[in-house]
Design goal:
The protein is an alpha/beta fold and 166 residues long. It has six helices and seven strands; from the N terminus they run E-H-E-H-H-E-H-E-E-E-H-E-H. The protein has a seven-stranded parallel β-sheet with strand order 3-2-1-6-4-7-5, with helices on both faces. The longest helix is centred in the middle third of the chain and has 15 residues. It is globular, with a radius of gyration of 15 Å. The model has no long low-confidence stretch (mean pLDDT 97).
């Protein structure tokens, strides 16, 4: 089975994080990294103020529906350090982003070890983070809107990576 990692970088919405955790768990993603300022569920060594961490956790739990307890996840501040580490572990790092060099998702044949990264809800992945990714994948749009919700786009990419043959 393909080894899929999801990285959610600098997201603001707790509901998007919950949705990502739930979808990743359902599709058998190996691990989810919550990087930058992305909100994250409660953790044993949580250093956030208790009332803030509890409020954030409740919002994430609303859409995660328990997936935050069943999927392996980790909060990490430095996304570039994480990307470098994953590359050393032979993961292909693929940004889900509209970019000039992006490959249309339907034509992409994912490798055995892939780390998918999604970024900010409105602005997308920062240029320096995008530059650190080996691949960019774009989901073709056919309507009037310019992009999908970050959780929806990630779900499409995770599903594609899970069920596309080599």
């Amino acid at each position: 089975m393909r080894d899929i990692i999801l990285i959610a970088h600098n997201l603001r919405s707790c509901h998007n994080v919950g949705s990502l955790l739930r979808t990743a768990e359902g599709l058998g993603v190996t691990k989810v990294y919550l990087t930058g300022y992305t909100p994250y569920p409660l953790k044993p060594d949580d250093t956030r103020l208790p009332h803030l961490s509890a409020k954030i956790a409740r919002q994430i739990n609303k859409t995660a529906l328990g997936a935050e307890s069943t999927i392996v996840w980790e909060q990490q501040a430095d996304v570039i350090e994480l990307l470098d580490r994953l590359k050393k572990q032979e993961y292909t790092v693929a940004a889900i982003e509209q970019a000039p060099r992006a490959i249309p998702l339907p034509t992409y044949r994912p490798p055995q070890k892939i780390a998918l990264i999604v970024g900010r809800e409105v602005e997308g992945i920062e240029p320096e983070v995008l530059a650190a990714c080996g691949t960019a994948l774009e989901i073709p749009m056919f309507g009037h809107k310019e992009s999908f919700n970050v959780a929806v786009a990630a779900a499409m990419a995770m599903y594609h990576c899970r069920f596309t043959d080599k």
